[in-house]
Queue: 2 jobs
Job 1
Amino acid sequence: MNTILLFLKKHFKISFLALVLMLSACATVPPVQEMSDARQALDAARKAGAEAHASKDLQSAEALLQNAEHALQEGDYKQARKDAEAAQSQAVVAQDKALNE
């Protein structure tokens, strides 16, 4: 009985450590894909005419991307990822407005 408890205790610690490492990896890996996605979304919005038809949304997306780039340079990958994802979403909104006007 004692051996079983020790076995379970040992595997719990390993599983917990693996979970912690996986969660911390999100904050330590630069958000390269997210930055690329945001830039592409901004380019698509501009090509759709967002500067004329959804300028506020486009400016908001550009500001978010700038914030993401600054956070990336500072090594704050979590914030950079968050801002890049928000920039992409805002650029999509701008593109949709431009295409539907």
Job 2
Amino acid sequence: MLKDGAWKVGPDEFDLPPLSKRSLGGQGDISASDALIANSFGITQITTIPAGYDNPITYVTAAGGITPSFVHPWMAVSGSLNNVTVTANPRIAAGVEGNRLTLVGAGSTITLPDGLGVALAGSATYVVALSSILCLVYTASNGAARWQETSRTVP
């Protein structure tokens, strides 16, 4: 046993003196730097959605069809104040090979029949209703340029 101050300790428990006599600081020590003011980090309360993150609703008309937007990961779509059946040719404006389009219902329904540039699963009409999701990918292979359905939710 070795003596460490007033205590007797084993050889592997012996505390060596610090390499410096300078204080390492601790609770209650006062910093020599300037005091921080309440908003010194530039933090502000966010009360609105910044424009770069806002995903506006796109209103669809029967004759106008859907013009894809790739600014956001999905398009929030709604019929123009009424339920709409898309009759435009093409129903969704042409894209570029590999474009992915996700339509999320955000209001009045949009009935999207199969055909005219849209290939839906089972050739079945899809109704984009509130909160429903339709995912498509654009393909131009084999001379058949169209939006091909990849998945959907049941409205």
